[in-house]
Design goal:
seven-stranded antiparallel beta sheet, Rossmann fold, Elongation Factor Tu (Ef-tu), domain 3, 421 residues, six-stranded mixed beta sheet, 7 helices
């Protein structure tokens, strides 16, 4: 069997989260350095920066803390993305801030992640931000969570410290909607159990972090049952070679499409069959997430951007009333009765927030039904009314068709990310 090419390799998106100074950026730097995913000139640049800062050793955190303000403060204040690959997989890393005021940044970074790495300082144990980030990972339906107890070198690589932190976190995690947890004791600074197994923690018999990232099963994370195809663009070349071609371009958001499938177009309800699945490289026999393709149909139907092509016998919900969890991202609090723009898959619509049901205390998971004011970084449950029916699934079933954003129509700022309940 021929070796897989780079473009055919499986892609894993993951985020790092945790409290301030838990070592998120250092961990990513260690992953990149020990997996030989950085160039010599990059290493030389951070070595010189470390010397100017007076660091005792090369500060690998500088590989991700790219903003000048971040380097000066020694903290991460924005989502930093890094890309690397091993012979087995490609990776996209989102290094998210640890401060409470940057919760919205974590939501942004986590929205497309397959896996979340939650770091815990071995000296401090489970902190308030640990619980906050674990709850957000659960809220955003990240399928896999890896809890890394970092800075084990500062507690003499103690097995009892690791076991105590794991037990404490498991008590909180029992309330969350995540089924796949992993626990690894590490020292990002020294590289213990990051890429190479630690000889100083021979009591730990589990995988290293890199082994887990390379081998964790993610192919079943996407919904391959409910066929969903939001139309982004109608292709009409009207050329001499293709005088009558009409194709519907977009990215498959769920399920599997094949030529000959009976489909229905929403919201019109018109039915047809798939004639072909086209790409620049040629026609395909099937398309599935997250492939970008062009569908042609047997019948001429009025279809435009924002419509959704689905299987005739497997339709999403259709409604103008949407109940969802939201993370509010704007300094101006949410106002019931106020009009906002919403973007759902490829459809834009106006909407009005009807009701705020409750606000969540993300540290205790308590639902506050008395204080319903949602300000910046708050998370709560709301109901809105859209100006046109939306075709959607619950977020727990499909993260693509179950999510939307709200936009301030005056400033054009994104004010909220929503997960349909």
């Amino acid at each position: 069997m021929p070796a897989r090419g780079y473009l055919d390799m499986e892609l894993l998106r993951f985020i790092t989260s945790g409290s301030v100074d838990d070592g998120k950026s250092t961990l990513i730097g260690r992953l990149l350095y020990d997996s030989k995913s950085i160039f010599d000139d990059q290493y030389e640049a951070i070595r010189l920066s470390s010397e100017r800062r007076g660091d005792e050793q090369v500060n690998l955190a500088l590989l991700t803390d790219g903003l000048r303000a971040e380097r000066e403060q020694g903290i991460t204040i924005d989502v930093a993305y890094r890309y690397f690959a091993t012979p087995r997989r490609k990776f996209i890393i989102a290094d998210t801030p640890g401060h409470i005021q940057y919760t919205r940044n974590m939501v942004t970074g986590a929205s497309t992640a397959n896996l979340s790495i939650i770091l815990i300082d071995a000296r401090n144990g489970v902190a308030e931000q640990t619980c906050r980030h674990a709850f957000i990972a659960s809220l955003l339906q990240i399928p896999h969570v890896v809890v890394c107890v970092n800075k084990m070198d500062l507690v003499d690589y103690s097995e009892s410290v690791f076991d105590e932190i794991r037990a404490c976190f498991e008590d909180f995690a029992a309330k969350l909607d995540v089924s796949d947890f992993h626990y690894i004791p590490i020292s990002a600074l020294n590289g213990d159990n990051v890429v190479d197994r630690s000889r100083r923690m021979d009591w730990y018999q589990g995988p290293t972090l890199m082994y887990l990232l390379n081998n964790i099963h993610i192919s079943s994370d996407q919904n391959r049952i409910d066929a969903r195809f939001p139309v982004q663009y109608v292709i009409r070349p009207q050329s001499r070679q293709y005088p009558d071609y009409r194709g519907y371009a977009g990215r498959v958001a769920g399920g599997v499409f094949r030529p000959g499938d009976h489909i229905v177009v929403l919201p019109s309800g018109m039915t047809s069959r798939i004639k072909s699945i086209d790409t620049f490289e040629g026609p395909l026999e099937e398309a599935f997430p997250p492939m970008s393709v062009t569908l042609t149909l047997e019948d001429d139907i009025d279809i435009g951007r924002g419509d959704m092509i689905v299987r005739e016998n497997n339709r999403p919900e259709m409604s103008q009333e949407i109940t969802m969890m939201v993370c509010w991202m704007n300094d101006r609090p949410l106002e019931t009765g106020r009009k906002y723009w919403l973007k759902h898959t490829t459809r834009d619509a106006r909407c009005v927030v009807r009701e705020v049901h409750y606000k969540v205390d993300v540290n205790t998971l308590h639902r506050n039904e008395t204080d319903k004011t949602l300000g910046r970084n708050d998370i709560g449950k709301i109901t809105l009314h859209a100006s046109t029916p939306l075709a959607f699934d619950k977020y727990s079933r499909n993260r693509e068709t179950g999510s939307l954003i709200l936009i301030d129509d005056a400033t054009n700022e994104t004010v909220a990310a929503g997960m349909i309940a």
